[in-house]
Amino acid sequence: MKKICLIATTFLALPLIAANRISESLPVRGLCISAPKPSEVDPFVRFIQEELAPRSLNSLILRVDFNYQFKSRPEMDNPSGLSRTDVKKLVAACRTSHIRLIPQINLLGHQSWRLANGKLLQVHPEFDETPWVKTPEKYTWPNPDKLYCRSYCPLHPKVHDVVLPLVDEICEVFEADAFHAGMDEVFYIGESQCPRCGGKDKAELFAGEVKLIHDHLEAKSRQLWIWGDRLLDGKATGLGEWEASINDTHRAIDLIPRDIVICDWHYERADPTAVCFAMKGLQVVSCPWTNPKTALLQLQDMIRFREQSPSVMKERFLGVVQTVWSDAGSFLKDYYGHQQSEEYKNGQKSAARCFIQLFPQP
Fold first, then answer.
1. Pairing mode, if any, of strands 283-287 and 178-182?
2. What is the mean pLDDT of the chain?
């Protein structure tokens, strides 16, 4: 894989492409952001209509997770989450703006954050892959237990009886033909003390969960999207344990279905790993965050890869998706602050500034 990735570095740098050509060059031009709170839905709808659509964005990944008033599994209902009415406002705004709306629920990993378990493990602690790891009084990283975020056990006999109905429900209410399952930064998988998956091949466990979710979606004509970090070899590439895997899940890249869309995130450098995924037969989008320089290099790379690749490879380089890791309300405040202040716009590194430069007004 290391040799494959190095191929991308042989391309010569090209000038920045004109903003009005982006929509002509890339099939996917997207934003990934947390779903707005109920009180933020109306402002977010205006943002879709007045900002995303004019910038020619055509894809919106909303990280819903468990912040919805679920009915299919009543124990997972979040009374303060989005209602069906809230979601339908978002659906209507995206439909009229010709934007593909893709909901996300983090599956497998990211079932906790620092000191707090997420909704799934709060309600179903029996699904925890590492129940013996105790939450510390004060969280630090690194720590002896290597606790970053908890995972659910993919081999627990009842976990999919809970999560798959939630996936179906969220896809139905969002009228979605694609679903993002997250699955990034999975540090706990196949742990030796787990009575079900201890000692099993971590790549096979990861691939098995991906395939199970993929097949469930495919049966209802829906496409699976996931983050790509667990499919990259962190040791061979030098990317390390965050942007890639050092616990052997990277071998799952050869075990998963080929029609999955990979969201390849790199935030400080424009690592050319999109080529790794494309050469494995997978469709891929490049995902920046707060660094405009990196984002524009990723944009150039994606356009160049499409222009300089054989037709069979060209179609796998889909485009770019800007990621936002604050809540939607904070992003909107930041975004409109950048719009109103030249000093603010030029002087601060943020997802909003990156977004404005990556997707300028025509």
1. unpaired
2. 92
